[in-house]
Every structure is written in structure tokens, then in C-alpha cells.
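Handoff note, outgoing to incoming analyst
You'll be picking up this chain. Sequence as last confirmed:
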Amino acid sequence: MNNMKWLGGFALIMLLSISVVVPAMAQDEEESKIGIWQNNVSLGLNVLQSSYSNNWNGGEKGSVNWAGNLDATFEKQFSELTNWRNTLKLAYGQTHQQERNGEGALYWQKPDKTDDIIDFESLFRWMPASRWDPFVSFTFTSMFEDLSDVEGRSQSFNPLTFKESAGISRPWIDTEDRQLMSRLGIAFIQNNRSFFVDAAPSMETVSETSTELAAELITEYKVGALDGRVDWESRLILSLPFVYSGKSVIEDDIDLVAAGLPDDLADYTTTLDVDWENTFTANITKVISVKLFVRWVYDKYDNTVTPVVEEGNLVNISDVHNAIRKAGQFKQTLALGFTYKFI
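Most recent structure output, in case you need it:
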């Protein structure tokens, strides 16, 4: 069953990859790009495996580490004044580890998730001569498998976050090798998250929704060096929610002291959020690359977790506790594997 689950996750990435890969249109570099889709799709797979027999005397334990990812960009300059860019990022990975039981025999543990990303953005810009470009955008984020439950149960595609934004963008640098762009706008965010109703082994869930209104600043930077052998992509998102639908529930309906929660928890929901991603890629050959991914997130309270109160009691108290992150969160992955680009 465990093997079927991770094989299913990998198969889902492959299926989604095939569904978004479209033929790239060939053109001379000197020809205008107006009216032509500029497509860039990168598909990667990293695998590390080891295994030992039960009578192996070195004491080592077998493991399987794998991660699949898809990074795609589809962009079209409809005219000198309009541009439409779509980006999709998918990633999923697991680690399978052997352990020894009381008799010394090796067995495979339940796999641990090491990577999980579903991130889609569609951005439309109007581009007047002033280079201050009005924009509208739509973003969808989720995970293939939510393992945040303290009792180890999982849910697929949870939470679901939809975001519509509008504002002004500014391309500070726009050359073949470097791009730097900032966007300042207002974002309307809808969150949908499912929670388990009862203790394990019950799998019954209930869905809760929440909404946010936030000021948002996004800065994106991309640079290539050494004739495309080294790439650096960076994205910094600063988001300041000033309206959150669950804030009044925290302020008026929850006895924070009795629940063991901070007495200023309501303020956490409208604190500045920071999300900074950096990806460094060294292309050794056309199909082999080394990728370093670094992400730092400061999200004092995860607003996808809506407090649920019934008859004066906080129903999802463990989920609310887990949603509090007073310190920044750090993630780093380094992978050597196969990458194929459709350009």
C-alpha cells in the first residue's frame, strides 16, 4: 500500500506534466516575439536507492529517496501593450527507510514526504510606455498530500488556496539574460481546508472556508550565466493581510487562556507574511543538473486554518496550535538528477 501511494504520487506528476507540455514554436532570435507563445518546460527526476539483506553485518539500513518536479512557463506577447504569462510548479518526493525489528530483521517503514508543491499563477499585464504596468493575476496553491494531522492521517489536495490580485507592476530589468520585476497590489484570498472530525482511526472530515484581503508586494529576479549552464531564480513575496474572516472568531468566541493559546492570537492573523524562494541550477549536461532550492517563510499564523467553535468549544484546537509559527521556517534541498527541457 505504501509503495502504491508513492507510485501514485509520481504518476500524478507525470500525468500533469504531459497535459501541460505543448510544442514550442521555432523562430529566429531576430524575429519579433509578438503573437508567438514562448514555452519553457523543465521535467526532473532525482533518485537515490540502497538495500541490504537481513544478515548484512555492517549495520546499514536501506533507503529509497526520490523526487519528481515540473517547472513550466507559457508566455505570449499579444501586442506591444499586452502580455500573458502562465507558470506552473509541481513537486513531490518521498524517503523510504528500512528499520530493524526486535528480532533484527529489516522492514520498510511508512514513507516520509520530503517535497510537495502545487503552484499555478496566471498573470496578465498592460504595458504602456511609462513602464508602470497595470496587472491582474490568478494564483492557485495546494499540496498533493496533507500530512499535518498529529495522528498521522493524510488528505489529498488540502488545503486549497485561490488568490485574485490587481495592481501595478514594474519591469526594472528585462534582457535576454536577466529579468527583474516588482508587483504591488491588493489580493483577495479564499482558503478551503478540511479537518478530521474525530480521533483516529476515523477518517471523517469537515471543510471550512476563510477569506483574506491583503496588500502584496512580489519581486521576481532571474539571471543566467556561463551560456545557460548556471541559473538563479528568486521570488520574494511580502503579504500584509488587513482583513481576515476568522479574526472575529478568535477575538469573540474562543477562551484563549483555557485553550492554551496566546492572548494576542488574533493579531497573528494580520501580521506581515514573508515567503522568499531561491533556486540555483547548474546544468552539467543537457539532461543532468544539480539544483539547490532554498526557501524561508515567516507566517506567524497559517490563515488556511480557520478556528471552528461549536457550543463555545474550539473543535480543532490541535490544528490551531499547529498553525502558530512564531519563528521563521527554513527549507533547503540539494539534488543531482535528470532534467529534460522542452523549449
